[in-house]
Design brief:
The protein contains eleven helices and two strands. By secondary structure, the protein is mainly alpha-helical. Strand 1 and strand 2 form a beta hairpin. The relative contact order is 0.15. One of its GO terms (molecular function) is 4 iron, 4 sulfur cluster binding.
């Protein structure tokens, strides 16, 4: 077992089909009720779990309701408000700066283009893609988080290592109608089965397609390291 199909196109198609069957309701797990909340939540989620972000934003979104609230916030106070979030000091600065830019350049609205979003401080392509997809219903790329990066490499779908290169590669082989859902499927499977340190290959719906399967391969293609 653990052998990929003959072409990457066929591999991607089969992986997507099986993961759709396994996770039919897979979607974004961050809590938000508008585009501003979505942007803030995604900014906070970098290097932090969605569960932790949702815990913090439950109170944060009651205290700060508008772009003006964030733009006028004291950075130190905001940092304390998100104190359990990874890199909270930097993220507080990013949020205040981004809110000020939105007030000055975008009439207080969350931008709806990749270029404008990535001009906001602390916003890269991953964050921008999420905001476009779930805030504006615009899909022009693939969100490459740690799960997408790990699964795509383990399954032999890509050999690239950097998120930007992985996204570009995936956009050439993942059918465009699946760009948004591909991320959610990878996240669901990455959390449930194909975890970073100890994947449950014996209970994996794509194990027979996986050239990294611990059941009959020695190397994790995601990390390039041998299995323990």
């Amino acid at each position: 077992m653990g052998e990929p199909l003959d072409s990457r196109d066929a591999q991607v198609e089969e992986v997507i089909d099986r993961l759709y069957d396994e996770y039919p309701d897979s979607t974004i797990s961050l809590n938000f009720s508008n585009r501003l909340e979505l942007l803030i939540a995604v900014m906070l989620s970098a290097q932090c779990t969605d569960e932790r972000v949702n815990e913090e934003t439950a109170d944060l979104f009651e205290k700060y309701e508008t772009v003006e609230d964030y733009a006028n916030a004291d950075v130190d106070e905001l940092s304390e408000d998100i104190g359990s979030i990874t890199y909270h000091n930097s993220k507080a600065d990013y949020i205040v700066s981004s809110a000020q830019t939105m007030l000055e350049d975008h009439d207080g609205e969350v931008p709806d283009t990749m270029d404008e979003l990535t001009e906001l401080k602390g916003v890269g392509r991953k964050t921008a893609n999420v905001v476009l997809q779930h805030g504006h219903d615009i899909v022009e790329g693939i969100v490459v988080d740690t799960h997408v990066q790990r699964l795509s490499r383990r399954l032999g779908i890509t050999e690239d290592e950097r998120p930007e290169a992985i996204e570009e590669d995936l956009m050439g082989i993942v059918p465009e109608e699946h760009w948004q859902q591909y991320t959610h499927l990878c996240i669901s499977h990455g959390r449930a089965t194909c975890t970073a340190r100890n994947p449950d290959c014996g209970d994996c719906v794509v194990e027979d397609l996986c050239p990294s399967s611990k059941l009959d391969h020695d190397v994790d293609l995601a990390s390039g390291e041998e299995w323990n």
